[in-house]
From TrEMBL:
InterPro entries: Ribosomal_mL43, Ribosomal_mL43/mS25/NADH_DH, Thioredoxin-like_sf. Residues 37-110 form the Ribosomal protein/NADH dehydrogenase domain. The lineage of its organism: Eukaryota, Metazoa, Ecdysozoa, Arthropoda, Hexapoda. One of its GO terms (molecular function) is structural constituent of ribosome. It is found in: Mitochondrion. Its main location: mitochondrion. This is Large ribosomal subunit protein mL43.
Amino acid sequence: MSNSQLFLKPGFVRAPLQNGVGRYVCQLQRIVFKFCKNHGSSRGMREFIEQDLVDFAKENPGVVVYLKPRRHRGPVVVAEYLNGDRVWMSVNNKSQSEITKWIEVLRTQAGDVSATRLRKYQYTDYPSVQGPWTPFTFKDPSLNTAKLPDPKYGANNRLGETATEKLRKMFEQQKLSEKSTE
């Protein structure tokens, strides 16, 4: 383990609530916009609030939006997620379009995954040098250039007739039996 991971919380990477299997659940629960009403570094944040905030709130009804004006402080966006993570982002001297892009990033992510030391579900003292097993691990390499179906590689010739051929014969026999009964 490297020293950079000593103070990170350990965790597993998994899809939150199996998101995307059924319906999509936005992981962003609450977003707080902290800004100064007259400070120059908050100009982009004020423009975002005046022009884009109402549209953002309409498009994301499951996200609670708070506005918190503060005197003589830089603009900050705090995002809180369903898994309990809080992401704090300074948007000091950013333009309205940059803030819009960063809000979209916060809306689509599932918390601060980069601040998690990744752990595996499996552990071994002796990891494989050869890599993971796949269905093609022990296959003959000449299969890569072969034109299939090839009797050399398939067992189709040993099976006799195919299911399609059997169905055709049964259909022909049925037709012949119907003609003979007429």
